[in-house]
Amino acid sequence: MHVLFITSWFETPSRPTAGKAVKDLAIALHRQGISVSILFQSFERLPWQSKSGDIDVFHFRSLSRTKFYPVFNIWSLRKGIHYFQQYVNNKGKPDLIHIHSYSSLALGHEIYRLFKIPFLYTEHSSQIAEQKIGFIKKEIVKYYLKDSKETVAVSEYLKKAMLSFKANVRIIPNTINFDFFVPGVNRKEEQLIMINLLTENKQVYKGIDAFKCWKSKHTNGKMYIIGDGPEKSSLERLAENEKIYFPGEQKESDWIEILQSSACLLLMSKSETFGVVILEALACHIPVICFDNGGVQEIAQCIPNTHMLSILDSSASDMAIAAAIDASNKNFSIDEAIRVRKVLNNQFGYTPVSSAYMEVYNEIHNRN
Hints:
The protein has helices at residues 20-31, 74-91, 105-115, 126-129, 135-145, 156-162, 204-215, 232-238, 252-260, 276-283, 297-300, 318-330, 334-348, 350-367, and strands spanning 2-7, 35-42, 49-52, 55-61, 96-100, 119-123, 151-153, 170-171, 191-195, 222-226, 244-248, 264-267, 288-291, 309-312. 40% of the residues lie in helices and 18% in strands. It is an alpha/beta fold. It is built from 14 helices and 14 strands. The radius of gyration is 21 Å and the shape is globular. It starts with a strand and ends with a helix. The strands form two sheets. Strands 3-4-2-1-5-6-7-8 form an eight-stranded mixed β-sheet, sandwiched between helices. It has a six-stranded parallel β-sheet with strand order 11-10-9-12-13-14, with helices on both faces.
């Protein structure tokens, strides 16, 4: 089967971690024998065709990203169709279009209208989960989804919000590469890490404040904050004169050893549609402290009553977060870490997640 992913974002030189969840799913499906390619647009000047591992990636530059509006977005849609036809000339006509996130729905719907290639839609966006899109956008999403053959959410938390668009929504979680995220050789007990965008939703300042409190008992403690975003400057000022490092947004291979050698990962987000970084840390035997951000429950329900994942109320004080960090390390058990990793691999590894999507693909193919 030939499947084309059309995604709202993907990795670029300036955004090396964009679209991580989409990339992992593409690799997982490729390993199952599905022919998968990726088509995306961005503001950057990039080659038309490139490789991301074994996956063919096709990029076109657009200053007016394809969003929803069928009237105001005619030029952008025409451009998208032009590059889709170039893709077909290169790779052949796909059997199925897989749309990732709502801002690519317009192009997927237009391809279906013109070429009758069925499409399905997977949502990842926290904007949908937090219901931060306006009434007009909601109505247009509903319109496009009338022709979507299947609609997928990556968590129960996200599904609840998506039910306002379509009555039938499946849940298929995100996946990570458990062959890459493995335990390291050493764990440093006095090092914390955060890996996320530096945006208001991520509440990185709470992690910094908790680190300062935790450091009162761990005078040699240090912290790494991996990521970039609009709040970076203010966060750097908040972290001034502390052993807090901001390497910026980096490829996984650049920070995997920092994660493997950390005492704990902090995720202080208000909202997460899933929380892939939680999986990545737990796969490396690193305990996680996070707030009840919605999507984390998709992971937590698989590993109840474990010290590896501590979910705090969003009102938790800096002292309470610091105490949770110490408790997670005091109660750390290698046997428990191995058990948690095994359970998560069986639930969220490449094979179970790609198999779930292959079942959906085959259902759509048989219906058509």
